[in-house]
Amino acid sequence: MEKLLDADYIDSGLPVFVNLEPSPMRMSDSILQEIRVLSQFNPASGLEGIKVHHDADPALIAATERLFSKGIISRIDGGYLTDAGIELMRHLDSLTTVLGTHMESASLH
User: Fold this and answer.
1) Got the DSSP string for the chain?
2) What whole-number distance in Å separates Cα of residue 37 and Cα of residue 11?
3) Which residue would you say has higher pLDDT here, 41 or 25?
4) How confident is the model at residue 45 (pLDDT cuts 50, 70, 90)?
5) Mean pLDDT across the stretch 70-89?
6) CA atoms within 13 A on the CB side of 63
7) How far apart are CA 34 and CA 91, in angstroms?
């Protein structure tokens, strides 16, 4: 059971609770950086790769290296998506599509 610290209310009047326990869905900075690297790939084409240069942000270089070690991309400095990377990219593309659609419809109100 979740432990709740306090409730604040957003404009809609719904309570927003602060969770004392780490949530399994929280994303670390390293995961967010990996998502940032993945978002540079074109989801419509497996034939387009990326190259992360040696003078790029060190956090992005490290994220790229982690993606390579996980078998998501073909080279330590980018390259192409592997089969696992293509599958992961489908999920990321779906997520960003849903979130982008939600943002667009929310801004119409």
Assistant:
1) ---EEEEEE-TTS-EEEEESSPPTT---HHHHHHHHHHTTS-TT-TT--EE--TTS-HHHHHHHHHHHHTTSEEETTEEEE-HHHHHHHHHHHHHHHHHHHHHHHHHT-
2) 34
3) 41
4) confident
5) 95
6) 21
7) 14
Distance CA 68, CA 51 (A): 12
| Confidence bin at 85 (pLDDT 50/70/90) | very high
The label of the residue with tokens 């942000």 reads 57
Residue 74: both structure tokens together: 């073909």
Pick from 3-17, 28-42, 44-58, 82-96: least confident: 3-17
Burial class (CB in 10 A: 0-12, 13-18, 19+), 81: buried
Give residue 42's identity as a one-letter amino acid code.
N
The residue type found at 59 is: A
Tell me the pTM. Answer: 0.69
